[in-house]
Amino acid sequence: GNNLTDEYGPKSKNEPRRSWMMRKRQERAAMKEGLAEWQANPYFCAGRVTVPALMDTVACQCFINTGMLTDLLTEFAGDDGRAGGALLRQIDLPPEMVGRTYGELVQRLTLHRKLVPLGLYRRKSENSAWRLQYVATNPPWHERLEISDRVFVLRERGGPWLAC
Predict the structure, then answer these.
(1) pLDDT digits (tens, 9 = 90+) for 67-95
(2) Where do the DSSP E strands lie in the chain?
(3) In Å, how far are 87, 101, 127, 152 from 76, measured between CA atoms?
(4) Cα(43)–Cα(47) distance, integer angstroms
(5) 3 pLDDT band (50/70/90 cuts)?
């Protein structure tokens, strides 16, 4: 079992902050999957830094497969120039979902808005001065949603795009 926290956060003020516990959970999961330590670094995850090894890999792949970069961008942005644009979007958290769980958000967006949530873009809730936001890809279903959260979603191709 996890003795760091219950599902709602620290049990007392002597325990670690929620963001620290989430980072440790992500680092353990990354190491279990065989990822390097830098791949779990919050600055890397926030898109603030890149690693030369990644640039080398992408450059080599683009040299060998000249259409790879275009294919990758097309997957994210869509290749349809008509109205609606990209299939991948970032939306505000619906106000009625603040304080609810990520699992409830997945259910609501999938069933009622035909959107597939991929993860959250969030900031450290316990320190409002902290400006480094991070991406939580497919967070645990019991993760509580916060007012500052934004949601990465995929919309269906050719479907109506609802203003979010």
Answers:
(1) 877 776 666 565 555 555 667 788 999 99
(2) 88-92, 115-122, 134-137, 150-155
(3) 6, 26, 32, 11
(4) 6
(5) very low
Joined tokens for residue 39: 């791949």
Q: What is the pLDDT of residue 103?
A: 96
d(CA 51, CA 111): 39
Q: How far apart are CA 34 and CA 43, in angstroms?
A: 19
Q: Which residue ranges form the domains of the chain, and what is each CATH number?
A: 82-164 (3.30.70.1450)
Decide: 77 and 85 in contact? Cβ < 8 Å.
yes
3 state DSSP class of 136: strand
The pair of structure tokens assigned to 1 is: 């079992």
The predicted structure's pLDDT at residue 6: 45
End-to-end CA distance of the chain: 39
